[in-house]
């Protein structure tokens, strides 16, 4: 007779599962409530979702130092806390947008909110573990929920976008699994930390096996981070999703991907594996430059923001190539500032919509000419949108200028002078297409005023969220110092 297995539940440290558990319980609670009473107002589900998100955010900072839990597959360190904070704060800003409009019917379904919470749980699992199996589970949980959220927008473009995203996501998942399989065959472990120890001990031999495994992982993460040449799905998916969800997609899935990339590749960078550095350098430069050039040719503001979001992701991916404490701190500083600015910019697209379809043609919902003369129709909107564009362009004193400056400074300090120059050139290129929208808003005459819904007709909730994003964009000059000190503290305790 086999002896019973004894488990020390105290040693499991189940508290490390708290943020994800709160999200899952919230999602299940919404589904159960809908079964009991299917006629509850969506505002109730918004409040329930917001409550669980804020509870999860509060639980993130209940840990001190680095902690492991649940058979050592959970890892709560400084970068996990920072990433979870970005995920939950961005989610807390997004979910109240459900109360701002009756146009987007997906927000009337309880399933939307349940899927949204499941998606957040998946992202949270990705950033709080160094176990490749759990990373994969989190990746697929979040991805499957996100495919469905896009399709729930219920337009022809939305179905097309969901199918494209699903197809590319399935391909990325396949590459990830093959990469995991190769790394396991080489090291006998699924833990990134143990994989690192074995590869270092074996002097990264056999080199071809390590090369193939790293390439598979880089391709998989490249799909998720929309790195060039794996970015082709992004503009169509953003075009098919609602403007607010597109803004959310440009922020939260990417921070989860950055954390996975940081855990996977930085130990190879620190080991001075030249071919890894060369691959990352090529991917980073191509992503920054190619998508910047593509953004120049766009006729739609939404597609321009989609390409610019990819370029920003390439910009931030440079921090992983540099691999210093300063660059990793710059990554989080940049992405926190980017969160408010980019989500605000996409939300402004939601505000600026027309009741009469086809006013500016049927191909795009948000062409540049739609914003012509906005300053004469609604000056507050024009000023706020202009502020977001100037920040994304990196114009001082707006928020992203400080993120770009610190990231380029970290590149120079680490000896990546040519990379810093390329980053500066790309920032200069991006000024053109951001200022193009500003020119349309401030210097062109209005094309029509056929019932465009502007800020004066927006709900108080929408005004509050846009106002908060605008304040954070403008007040960054006073917040960067304390924010950077906090970020550096958490990065250092993670050993990055």
Low-confidence stretches: none
H/E topology pattern: HHHEEHHHHHHHHHHHHHHHHHH
- What is the end-to-end distance? 48 Å
User: Whole-number radius of gyration?
Assistant: 22 Å
Helical residues, percent:
over 70%
Cross-sheet strand order for the largest sheet: 1-2
**Largest sheet properties:** 2 strands, antiparallel
Number of separate domains: 1
Number of helices: 21
The assigned structural class equals mainly alpha
Question: Could you explain the architecture of this structure?
Answer:
- The chain is mainly α and 496 residues long.
- Helices cover 72% and strands 1% of the residues.
- Helix 6 packs antiparallel against helix 7 and helix 17 crosses helix 20 (460-474).
- The model has no long low-confidence stretch (mean pLDDT 87).
Q: In a few lines, what is going on in this structure?
A:
This protein has 496 residues and is mainly alpha-helical. It contains 21 helices and two strands.
How is the secondary structure organized here?
Layout: H1 9-12, H2 18-36, H3 42-60, E1 67-69, E2 74-76, H4 78-94, H5 110-127, H6 132-151, H7 156-187, H8 192-201, H9 207-224, H10 234-240, H11 243-249, H12 252-270, H13 274-296, H14 301-322, H15 325-351, H16 374-377, H17 379-392, H18 399-413, H19 417-443, H20 460-474, H21 476-493
Antiparallel strand pairs: 1-2
């Amino acid at each position: 007779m086999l002896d019973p297995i004894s488990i020390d539940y105290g040693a499991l440290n189940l508290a490390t599962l708290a943020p994800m558990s709160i999200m899952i319980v919230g999602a299940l609670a919404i589904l159960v409530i809908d079964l009991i009473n299917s006629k509850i107002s969506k505002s109730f589900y918004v409040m329930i979702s917001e409550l669980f998100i804020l509870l999860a955010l509060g639980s993130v900072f209940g840990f001190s130092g680095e902690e492991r839990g649940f058979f050592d597959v959970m890892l709560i360190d400084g970068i996990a806390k920072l990433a979870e904070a970005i995920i939950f704060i961005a989610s807390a800003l997004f979910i109240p947008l459900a109360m701002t409009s009756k146009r987007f019917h997906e927000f009337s379904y309880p399933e939307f909110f349940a899927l949204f919470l499941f998606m957040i749980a998946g992202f949270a699992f990705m950033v709080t573990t160094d176990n490749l199996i759990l990373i994969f589970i989190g990746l697929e949980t979040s991805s499957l929920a996100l495919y469905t959220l896009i399709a729930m927008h219920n337009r022809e473009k939305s179905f097309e976008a969901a199918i494209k995203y699903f197809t590319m996501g399935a391909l990325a998942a396949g590459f990830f699994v093959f990469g995991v399989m190769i790394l396991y065959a080489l090291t006998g472990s699924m833990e990134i930390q143990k994989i690192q120890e074995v590869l270092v001990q074996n002097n990264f031999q056999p080199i071809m096996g390590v090369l193939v495994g790293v390439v598979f992982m880089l391709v998989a993460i490249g799909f998720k981070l929309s790195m060039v040449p794996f970015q082709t799905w992004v503009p169509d998916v953003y075009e098919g999703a609602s403007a607010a969800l597109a803004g959310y997609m440009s922020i939260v899935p990417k921070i989860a991907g950055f954390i996975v990339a940081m855990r996977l590749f930085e130990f190879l960078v620190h080991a001075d594996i030249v071919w890894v550095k060369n691959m990352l350098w090529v991917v980073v430069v191509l992503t920054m430059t190619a998508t910047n050039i593509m953004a120049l040719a766009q006729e739609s503001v939404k597609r321009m923001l989609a390409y610019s979001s990819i370029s920003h992701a390439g910009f931030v991916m440079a921090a992983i190539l540099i691999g210093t404490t300063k660059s990793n701190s710059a990554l989080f500083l940049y992405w926190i500032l980017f969160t408010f600015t980019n989500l605000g910019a996409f939300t402004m697209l939601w505000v600026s919509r027309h009741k009469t379809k086809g006013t500016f043609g049927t191909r795009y919902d948000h062409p540049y000419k739609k914003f012509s003369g906005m300053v004469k129709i609604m000056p507050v909107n024009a000023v706020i949108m202009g502020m977001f564009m100037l920040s994304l362009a990196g114009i001082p004193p707006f928020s992203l200028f400080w993120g770009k400056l610190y990231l380029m400074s970290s590149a120079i300090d680490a000896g990546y002078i040519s990379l810093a120059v390329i980053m500066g050139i790309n920032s200069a290129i991006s000024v053109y297409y951001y200022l193009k929208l500003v020119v349309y808003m401030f210097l062109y005459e209005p094309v029509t005023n056929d019932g465009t819904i502007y800020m004066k007709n927006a709900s108080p909730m929408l005004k509050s969220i846009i106002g908060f994003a605008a304040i954070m964009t403008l007040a960054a000059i006073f917040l960067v110092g304390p924010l950077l000190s906090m970020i550096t503290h958490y990065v250092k305790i993670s050993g990055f």
